[in-house]
Write a structure and sequence with these properties.
Elements: H1 9-24
Amino acid sequence: MSKEPRLSPPLILFDGIRRLRDLSRR
């Protein structure tokens, strides 16, 4: 996984939501 500044904003949001849902499903 390389750090690319050309990452889509929706993609980052999706990743964050998925991680939050995983933590909430604890």
